[in-house]
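Bug #77: duplicate submission created two jobs. Keeping one. Sequence:
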Amino acid sequence: MQKLAVLFFFAGFAAMGQQAGWQGKFEQLEQTLPTPNEYRTGSGAPGPRYWQQRADYTMSIELNDDNQSISGTETITYYNNSPDVLKYLWLQLDQNLFAQDSNTPKVSSSAVRDSVATKTIAGQLGLYDFDGGFKIKSIKDAAGKAMPYLINATMMRVDLAQPLKSGEKVAFTIDWSFNIVDRNLLGGRSGMEFFPEDGNYVYTIAQFFPRMCVYDDVVGWQNKQFLGRGEFTLPFGDYKVKITVPADHMVAATGMLKNPAAVLSKTELERFEKAKTTYDKPVVIRTQAEATEREKTKVKEKKTWEFEAANVRDFAFASSRKFIWDAMAVKIGNSSPLAMSYYPKEGNPLWEKESTIAVKNTIEVYSKYTIDYPYPQATSVHAASIGMEYPMICFNFGRPNKDGTYSNATLMRMLGVVIHEVGHNFFPMIINNDERQTTWMDEGVNSFVQLLTELERYAHLDWSRGKPAGLVPYMKGDKSLMRPLMTNSEQVIQFGPEQYAKAATALYILRETVMGPQLFDKAFKEYAQRWAFKHPKPADFFRTMEDASAVDLDWFWRGWFYTTDNCDLTLDKVKWYRMRTAQTDVEKKQKNVKAGDLAPSNANPGQDFSNGPELFTVIPTDERFYGEFKNRVDEKAIANKLENKNLYEITLSNKGGLVMPVIIEWTFKDGSKEIEHLPAEIWRINENTFTKVFVKEKEVAAVVIDPRKETSDVNAEDNVFPRVQQPSKFDELKKKGSN
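Kept job's structure:
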């Protein structure tokens, strides 16, 4: 038999080389990411000389329930573990967001419109009379000598009498107070909610003390002002906190209660101890009936609650006489942390049924994907219209109707926010990124693990945020309103869809479609273990994920995190081929050819399969193709492999600019289906178009790209072949006329 060569493939290679609009989507990120050094390595791991600062706090604070204010004294012991000499320290004064000279109202846009709600215009124009912000009474060193300080909006510089050398520590004391924000009027992440029916308050208090800024190896002092959106970056340390409140209040806080016998009733103490060994369901420590009785008392006596927390980056608390309290133990590795919830009766029956179980589910699933939950407890506190997180405690919305009924939507929103905020214990409370600069590293990463938790523990509910299909409305939206994920939070316009949903979806696609769960999970867990109780940057995450998986993901980070491109693939055409043989030539000459049989090669190619396959010819292989090789291929055997096979040449276009893997679903004439995956590297030569031939035993009836909506493709209609032709207006009128 003569030597044969499959010549029609050459045209495909030629087209592949026609480059248009190359944008370097597969170029490496080395020139973009910071240069590795002895502090942060090229592998994404902390380097041999990695360091971070430490700040320990001892505090005594009092909540005044009569005038809704807080006063306190704190002693900070600051450890300089850096190689640098520090002449001054920077602290955050986040309550100054509500000071009368705050920059936030000045930089917030506003406009006049008719029929505006009273509450809305009052907030926009600052019509509420509120004296907010910290009142700093004094700052003194360990000897009691006043220390010079300078307040710059939400930042405070404290000058040191002697430069703080590497390896040294310094202690100083601050006395301060502030008025508590009414969140219903002024918003905010910390404050109070008033209940007119019983005249009581629920206080959810955070950012309530001057807190040390982070000083690190990348930027030195973190000194970006707090405008309200960009959250917090804080050093780790140990906390000892005494909180004085009305004697009939119940207090929840970061850390563990150290004096339970002094603040709990004998019955409450017994129930609390029982909860520590109860794993199957929550133990109610203060019941709704007991809390309702407390609502009526309003005693003037006071009690002081003492809490301690080790190796945390912040401290928050909640206090109210309205609180119901339940708790249960959770088995995590070799420890049994408590899952706990505090809520007023307005949260029931939803909260008593769901909150603590959701806390348990969260720390169990997150521990599986990251590190074992290291703290002694995790608490969910119910408050209106808020979702906010702190170490071991978070404040969450989700309130049923007054008669106790609630919709499925309310249930899902409540479960979602509890899982999300409790999950923040891991990101960023433990894996401690700079929230003010890179929001996606905590909000997006956390939203991704939140979705894994929801799908694993609440699979019967219809979750969407983080799934590829759920992101499509945002991705196909107005590009002028979009920002890359690698954008500071204050400049983001669509905060939730971008920093939460887009980042979560990116990681979900990376896990499910690009890397596969097994490989992704190993790399993701490596990142969590490397950077637990440290300060990772984006480059540390990107590099670790590649280092621990042996997958080059620079194209993925570049597209999803540095651009606003979207995924919009188009299946332009599919051509059906068969190899020409003597038998097929005879068949073509027959006069009774049926529709769908072999057809001339110029008959409606690539639009549908109605005219059958095109024929191609193989010819003898020219000796030049062998070069210096002396052996020859068995071309007869190759020809036999192609005989009666169906070859399908598909052409794809990348209209959205985001390079992504391609998932192809083949549906055969006998009704069977096959899924085929092509890596994103198919776009490495030509980022705009791609052509490839597939050999199939059976005839294909239809082809669909991304059949399970795995890639957030913004237009699914052009992913199908043959196209579903929409009837024209002429056809519709003609049909009506015939009727």
